[in-house]
Amino acid sequence: MRKETQKLLLLSVLGLVSVQMAAQQQVKKDSVKTIDEVVVTALGIKRQDKSLGYVAEKVDSEIFENIQNNNWAQGLEGRVAGLKIQTAGAGPLSSSRITLRGEKSFNLDGNYALIVVDGVPLSNSTTGTGTAAYGAGTGGDLPIDLGNGLNSINPDDIESVTVLKGASAAALYGSRAANGALMVTTKSGKSKNGRLKVSFNSSLSFDSVLKWPDYQYEYGQGTLVKNTAGQFFYSYGLSADGVSTGGTSSAFGPKFDGQYYFQYDPNLLGQSAERQLWRPYKDNIKGFWETGVTSSNNVSVEGSTDRTSFRASLSYLDNKWMMPNTGFDRFNMAFSLDHKVTDKFRVSTKFNYANTKSDNLPATGYNNQSISYFMIFQNPNVDLAWYKPIWKPGQEQVDQIHPFSSFIDNPYLIAYQMLNGVEKKMITGNISGTYDFNKNFSLMLRSGIEMLDEERTTQRPYSSANYLKGFYREQYIKNNEFNNDLLFTFKKDYGKFNVNANAGASVRYNEYVMTDYRAEGLKVVGDYSLNNAISLITKVPRPNDQQTNSVYGLVSANYDNLVFLDVTGRNDWSSTLPVQYRSFFYPSVSSSFILSDIFKLSTPNFNYWKLRASWAKVGVAGLPYQLDKYYTPSDFIGSVLTPGTYPNPLLKPEDNTNIEAGMDFSVLKNRLSYNVTLYQNDTDNQIITIPTLLESGYSNRIINAGKVRNRGVEMSLSAMPFKTKDFSWNISTNWTLNRNEILTLPDEFAGENSYTISTVAGVLYYNAVVGGSLGDLYGFKLLRNEAGQVVYDQATGLPARPDRVEKVGNAFPKWRAGFQNDFKIKNWQISFSFDGQYGGMAYSQTHHKMSEQGKLENTLMGRDNQSGTIVGQGVVLNPDGTYSSNTKAVGLAAYYGDYYRRANIETNTFDTSFIKLRDARIAYSFSKDVIAPLKLTELTLAVFGKNLWMWTKFPMFDPEVAALNDSTITPGAEIGQLPSARTVGFQVNLKF
Description:
transport; signal; Membrane protein; Maltoporin, Chain A; transmembrane beta strand; transmembrane; five-stranded mixed sheet; disordered N terminus
């Protein structure tokens, strides 16, 4: 068999097996050979994949390097079965809600997977602005997505991410990994022959809005008012034509048909002197948005000798987002060093520094200061250019131009004056020393840190709807986490038996403090400083510290590499629990059987068959300061507020029990591989907050109660349909189904009573009932008869209103899937990835309000009726109990306002099924004979795209929607969502 020596391509097939093959070779016969892939598991321990009794899926660095994302985690979307990444659609930093295998906790923030960077857990904390997404009419401020710890990780520094999905996979990390873990390994020096290797990666990308709602531009502002001649008309202010109709936010005015009316004149800042053409401005919302631009540049240097390896990198990302005057820049610095001091002692360290800075990030939600609010209230006949001067002449910084309502802030005032600044400095790193006593015994001591120093500023100018005298805020957040652990390792072969044992201990300490200053009103306009406050409010910083001490052990044994068994145990002592329950132990057992070797089934066309199973139980501690009564500093210096939640001095840890089993296959010389996993996860004795009688002096109390079960199926398939010297095609697909069931609830919610986990906008309820699921959405629906016909009120002609809330749907899909294709044609690489979901529902506040105001195409029915009325399709209830057709006509504005009212969850909730072309890339790598004279070892040019195409019936911007309530990302609700982006970019990669 003749071969040419060429570089080797490592093909990782869905984390099941790996094959090593010649990327460019001349062969007379296919000679693919299997090898054992190494993955990083809990505590940073490297294991052979075939030894694991659970799924550990590995995603390599090229995914993060090739498709540049502001947040690296979004590059995983659709690529790993059971993994769901959701954002609130709230701007460029896009804090991610990462879950694995469904929702397990009644606490929405208690479902996140743990992020581990180089063996050290990341707290990934997020501090919100203290405000809900729905805030209309309440004054105050709005949520701002200022990013979380994930945003600080530079994608170019990631070597791999291993996804440990269940409690079995992450048992050694304790309660924080009860929902699974993402093990991030950053790059280290790996140059050959002692040579320095320099890499440069640069990209430039452009963002545009992916999808718009179906705005209607056939009718303008108004409320169906008629003039003396009985015709619909419009008048900005009282005029010769009639009364003013220009003060409404509704678009039930006259049709655009070439007529002339007295309208707003931007030069006069009032009514026009002459009648003006009644016309639509079809770019009066879309025209506000710009093309976003992101540039990213990364340079790294690495080298190694027989005793030392190192890597250093610098990266700078500059983002100008699609909303004017928003975006951020991020500077990253990373350094790693591994040095063999002696033949027995090795020292290594990894250090990452990130500085993320923004002068302005967009606010989200439904309130005056959000650009989403302006888009909802903008009328079809209003020119966006009328707002551009921002200030009335002679009243700069004092009185804004907002000619149609004092409650609707000028969009350019929002963009250029209502600033939300942040600067985050984050350090993560570790240093470890490993001593090998002999070939069987070793000891590792490791210390890791995560240090966050964050400064925030909020500016609100004079005349803003919620702050007529202006507002200024400063927040200072410090969040430091220290992890120290030691790990003792023993390994030895006893004939065909191999034993590998690990025992260790760790101490985790987290300290958090936030200082908050607010200037309510400004003495001097435009002077944003605390010294300029009319009223200065200082929140005394309150500590929020916690500590966990742990001991743990792992014993791994195998017989002749045919049968593998793992047994783990961990005991935690948590400061968040009372003394009598502070200590809790949890074990796990997992096993794998290489059936293809046990039964000697391996042939050239049947390569690999593995059976695996695992069981694990994990204890979950609660949040700090839930055991005793603590007073909260109030806005008045020297005073405090009594707590509204009754503490529980007898809290116990939650229990999370996971069982899973699966099989892995590989056939046709590993060109076709299949993976299937069945799992069940029970979360019992949860720490939850329930309402209590107000007579007790409290509104809520904390208890242990409730049990939730998740059952699911995960399947992955990888294939190489074609492979020749100059052409190859790889396919990877995955499919996930998860079913969630609430098994028990507190006694207070027995029978038909439901436990309300959360509410949004005062009308959407996340209710839990026994037999139901987490994510069930409840609210008022249309009243229907037995035949499913809508029942109308005979007196009003409007839909009859039910007297109780009902289940409308569930926020989470029935199943999700991903599909990736990779082609190599000589020096060309072409790849694209689809993913999507089936099912799931989301309520849309934007749809409610724009439909109520007649601004969407779904409100055009009946507009051509000269009477300005419409008859709702349905029935009325007769006195004898029968039904007859509804015949009562009502005004269009009244009909649509009631049919799509905020409390009608049914008519404003939609299916979130979708298919997305998540990413695509075309790259060309120059051959070595071309780049050798340039002293380069690699040169690749590429064009890439993200979110290039989408199919969905969801009527708003994006079906992957969630509301940002304070810092909580709440799936199933769209409350002032910002547009999502379609991205096209260019990239150059070179190495020398």
